[in-house]
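Input record (Table S2, row 249):
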Amino acid sequence: MRLADKVAIVTGGASGMGAATALIFAREGAKVVVADQLAAEGEQVVGRIKDAQGVARFQPLDVTNEKAWEQAVAATLAAYGRIDVLINNAGISGSDPNLLSREVWDKVMTVNATGCFLGMRHVIPEMQKAKRGAVVNISSISGLSGQTFVHMAYNASKAAVWMMTKSAAVQFAKDGIRVNSVHPGLMPPMRTSKLTADPTIRAKMLEAVPMGRDGRVEEVAYASLFLASDEASYVTGTELVVDGGYLAM
Ligand SMILES: NC(=O)c1ccc[n+]([C@@H]2O[C@H](COP(=O)([O-])OP(=O)(O)OC[C@H]3O[C@@H](n4cnc5c(N)ncnc54)[C@H](O)[C@@H]3O)[C@@H](O)[C@H]2O)c1
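Output record (nicotinamide-adenine-dinucleotide complex):
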């Protein structure tokens, strides 16, 4: 098993790519902390993991809340004794028709960029003590290019995730910690998607994908699995794009 005996926190683990990541990580031997604001959905993911003889627990977490992070780290250590892997996956969409809204800017930057930073701020000290760890930050193709119908806050927040990944990688390599980013392309709509959930807009977006289809949540989870595992022991500070060729066009 590719994550045998590792303890992994997956933020946004109640839905979409986070849920797929939690399920696959558990199947690969990890003890998984499904951390999310959505308790019922998160408990459901934990239930599916346990039904498959895996080990998991749900942790209520708002990634923007320092206290909640302190509690999540403490609860994980109390339950499993260590934290080997952090997947900073929780996020909200920026596909809002009001492209110059200050409110959207503040909210998207706080959840997507600050939330990712806070994950590293609270988990990296534990990894430093253990002298090992792998962090995977979920960015997006939107962190590497602009888009016509996505609020620039989403692009900026995902570019921040991309770049803070590189900062953390160079700053904490000496502590045995690897930090990488994954950049999904056109995936199933997020719970918070507006414009990008519209079938007409999605059809237009698909025209820009050389593979001609959107991605499956598992296809992103497998990229995180590689980066979280010891197979990636010499990989840090880099980005893995999972986009059906979108950015290559
Ligand atoms: N769906 C896409 O097209 C796409 C493409 C590229 C990147 N991404 C990124 O992938 C990640 C996962 O997205 P998804 O498609 O699975 O979306 P999703 O909406 O299905 O899942 C996001 C999860 O994050 C959780 N979340 C949101 N705000 C939170 C907060 N403050 N604290 C804790 N949890 C919070 C939600 O409750 C939800 O469970 C996000 O970071 C997203 O930006 C998505």
